[in-house]
Design brief:
Blueprint: H1 8-22, H2 26-45, H3 50-62, E1 68-70, E2 75-77, H4 79-92, H5 107-121, H6 125-145, E3 147-148, E4 153-154, H7 155-158, H8 163-179, H9 184-194, H10 203-207, H11 215-231, H12 247-252, H13 286-297, E5 305-312, H14 317-320, H15 324-328, H16 333-336, H17 340-349, H18 363-366, H19 369-375, E6 378-382, H20 384-389, E7 396-402, E8 407-412, H21 425-436, H22 442-453, H23 462-468
Parallel strand pairs: 5-6
Antiparallel strand pairs: 1-2, 3-4, 5-7, 7-8
Length: 469
């Protein structure tokens, strides 16, 4: 069968199989190592979060043979359980990387699945990086197939679906299947099985609930399970992606773009362009934070603020600006991370880490009268220039009128962390250290950093996973 005769899922599986056998180029392995380090730091920082404790309690009840590390617990769990817990950790603080314009977080589902299976199977560090890189690429391409250029947004998102969890389940399945030694046919089956497992609804972003924090954990769990089912003989449909009752039609209808799945596949890689997050909050809020930090650096005194207008792309206002009364007074630190008004206030009043950090998203911080008073002065509005840029970047414009009548403006066309405004290696290392040292000593964090960056040379993962336990 020639490449042109293969279905999209078969072509994606063939890419994954080629990477499994031949490995990624060194520059892509290096990028995958940065993704792994970012996920590990975010996960270590989230170990005390209530959703992580709840999932940890559940998987402990499930029991089973422990073959994969549960990050930060000292325990090993069955691979699907470890993937569920670690994926929950990876996404709990909304600090995970983001691809544009699909607007999904690929690494938080793929890396936990890959890490669990790699450890259980005794894989090399290079094999882990290859699987993680291919899994992220497949996740992103699935997300792009749901991106509508005319609409200028993800069809998944428009329908209230979490593309991160839906597409991430398939990317996780590909990574887990690669590390399980499956060939192209087996990887295609794993993808076909996982397509029946991915799900996620975004209503919690608007009105509350903690369920979104487990979306990436469930996607990782589904991916590991799908790969295991493929390994033991369950098969998936060859037209699972583009078929009449396939994933794209089911989730996106006629607005899907199946060609995006295989356009320049294996020649052009989306992996290096995935944005890292400098702030632990919804990515739609980041450009507003950037603008607020710039105004603060220019000498703006929050006490001198009369009113603030946050201009943003129209589609993101549903996440960071509506309902307006809820966003001005978020019910918890977690919900504050999805609030445009609150995050602008936090950037103007305080902030740590790389500008705004975890201490800005505690329940106590979200209830701080000074922050709430400033957030109440923020009005979120659509901005035409931002609409023209989104979703290829996350832009924003901040206009502040002072009590004396002066009008200050700061426009951000490309937020920090992406190819046009990247975080430096030192900033990435700082992010990991600040995250990891919330749970482990600085000396251990440094060891984890060194081992993760050296994954391509490691014969097994025990030295790294022992530090993570």
């Amino acid at each position: 069968m020639t490449s042109d005769q293969k279905t999209p899922v078969q072509r994606l599986a063939a890419l994954a199989d080629r990477v499994r056998r031949d490995g990624l180029p060194p520059e892509l392995r290096a990028d995958a190592a940065r993704r792994v380090l970012d996920v590990l730091g975010n996960s270590l920082a989230a170990t005390a979060q209530p959703p992580a404790r709840a999932v940890g309690e559940l998987v402990t009840e499930w029991g089973g043979a422990g073959r994969a590390t549960a990050i930060g617990t000292g325990a090993r769990l069955p691979e699907p359980s470890a993937a569920l817990l670690n994926g929950t950790l990876a996404h709990s603080l909304d600090f995970d990387d983001t691809h544009l314009p699909s607007v999904l977080h690929p690494s938080a589902s793929v890396v936990p699945a890959a890490l669990a299976v790699a450890e259980a199977r005794g894989a090399t560090g290079a094999a882990l990086l290859d699987a993680a890189g291919a899994g992220v690429e497949i996740t992103v391409r699935l997300g792009m197939a749901g991106y509508d250029r005319e609409l200028g947004n993800s069809v998944f998102f428009e329908r209230g679906q979490h593309a991160t969890a839906i597409c991430g389940a398939l990317g996780a399945a590909a990574a887990a299947a690669m590390l399980s030694g499956l060939d192209a046919g087996g990887i295609a089956d794993a993808l076909g099985i996982a397509a029946s497992m991915g799900s996620g609804i975004l209503e919690a972003n608007r009105t509350g609930g903690t369920v979104k924090r487990i979306h990436c954990g469930w996607a990782a769990h589904a991916g590991v399970t799908a790969a295991g089912l493929a390994r033991t003989g369950i098969t998936g449909p060859p037209t699972v992606l583009e078929g009449r009752f396939g994933l794209l039609q089911a989730f996106c209808g006629d607005r899907a773009d199946p060609a995006a799945l295989t356009d320049r596949l294996g020649e052009h890689w989306e992996l290096p362009g995935v944005f890292f997050k400098p702030y632990p909050c919804n990515h739609f809020t980041h450009a507003g934070i950037d603008a607020a930090l710039r105004l603060r650096a220019r000498g703006l005194d929050p006490a001198d603020v009369a009113e603030i207008e946050l201009g943003a792309p129209t589609p993101v206002l549903r996440t960071i600006g509506e309902p307006a009364e809820d966003k001005a007074r978020p019910e918890s630190g977690y919900h504050a991370a999805f609030s445009g008004p609150y995050t602008v206030a936090a950037a103007l009043l305080g902030g740590g880490g790389l500008g705004v950090f975890h201490e800005d998203f505690t329940d106590e911080a979200a209830a701080d009268p000074a922050r709430l008073a400033l957030a109440a002065k923020v009005r979120c509005v659509p901005d035409a220039r931002c609409d023209a840029i989104f979703p290829h970047a996350f832009p924003a414009v901040l206009r502040v009128r002072t009590r004396g009548g002066a009008l200050l403006e700061e426009r951000v066309n490309s937020n920090r962390g992406g190819p046009e405004n990247p975080l430096s290696p030192d900033e990435l290392a700082t992010k990991f250290e600040l995250n990891a040292t919330r749970h482990v000593p600085a000396t251990r964090a440094a060891e984890i950093t060194d081992l993760t960056y050296d994954l391509a040379t490691l014969d097994d993962l025990e030295a790294l996973t022992s530090l993570l336990r």
